[in-house]
TrEMBL record:
GO terms for cellular component: cytoplasmic side of plasma membrane; cytosol; ESCRT III complex; late endosome membrane; multivesicular body. Gene3D superfamilies: 6.10.250.1710, ESAT-6-like. It is a peripheral membrane protein. It is found in: Cytoplasm, Cytosol; Late endosome membrane. This is CHM4C protein. It holds the Pfam family Snf7. The lineage of its organism: Eukaryota, Metazoa, Chordata, Craniata, Vertebrata. It comes from Scytalopus superciliaris. Belongs to the SNF7 family.
Length: 224
């Protein structure tokens, strides 16, 4: 594995991370061993106490050396942990950048067959067709006006004629009261004319027209 890594120009991030984890595991086991030895030497020092001061001091010295090694291992583990986290982050960033590069290449490949001028022309065609479709919809939705163009004055004149015909028809249908069988007392000429106008409006109108004609004849005779 190492030879293959060297042939490739250095270990891969995965290989380096695996080595760092192995080192962390080894140092953790060394920590457990040193903690056990420290407890054992402390127990020896307590056992000898004042009865064998020399043996007790030797045990305490060994305990101090183990504690120093344990402290060094703690520092080494902190450094390895920091390096491992940095390598993991670098590996993650590398993978992210690699994937982003793949995405950029894919986008470039997709856009190779796209022409901005063609896109502009296509969008313009779409807009024009949408306008045409809107005009067609408006034309269909508008109310048909076939045959509605007539002269309003002619229509009003025809309507007035129809109304006059209905009025005349109604006047013809009016029934006048029957003439009494007994003779009426004589009345002055003016009263008879007034009576005739009240009873028969149509006859009175003709009578007024006859009177006007007589007056015009008399006026013409006087002028000549």
């Amino acid at each position: 594995g190492s030879a293959a890594s060297k042939g490739r120009g250095g270990p891969s991030p995965q290989e380096a991370l695996a080595r760092l984890r192995e080192t962390e595991e080894m140092l953790s086991k060394k920590q457990e061993y040193l903690e056990t030895r420290i407890e054992r030497e402390l127990a020896v020092a307590r056992q000898h106490g004042t009865r064998n001061r020399r043996a007790a001091l030797q045990a305490l010295k060994r305990k101090k050396r183990y504690e120093k090694q344990l402290s060094q291992i703690d520092g080494t583990l902190s450094t390895i942990e920091f390096q491992r986290e940095a390598l993991e982050n670098s590996h993650t960033n590398t993978e992210v950048l690699k994937n982003m590069g793949y995405a950029a290449q894919a986008m470039k490949k997709v856009h190779e067959n796209m022409d901005l001028n063609k896109i502009d022309d296509l969008m313009q065609d779409i807009t024009e067709q949408q306008d045409v479709a809107q005009e067609i919809s408006d034309a269909i939705s508008n109310r048909a006006t076939f045959g509605d163009e007539f002269d309003e004055d002619e229509l009003m004149a025809e309507l007035e004629e129809l109304e006059q015909e209905e009025l005349n028809k109604g006047m013809r249908d009016v029934r006048l009261p029957s003439v009494p069988s007994t003779s009426l007392p004589s009345r002055p000429a003016g009263c008879c004319k007034l009576h005739t106008r009240l009873l028969h409006p149509v006859t009175a109108s003709h009578w007024r027209r006859a009177e006007d004609e007589d007056e015009m004849k008399k006026l013409a005779a006087w002028a000549s």
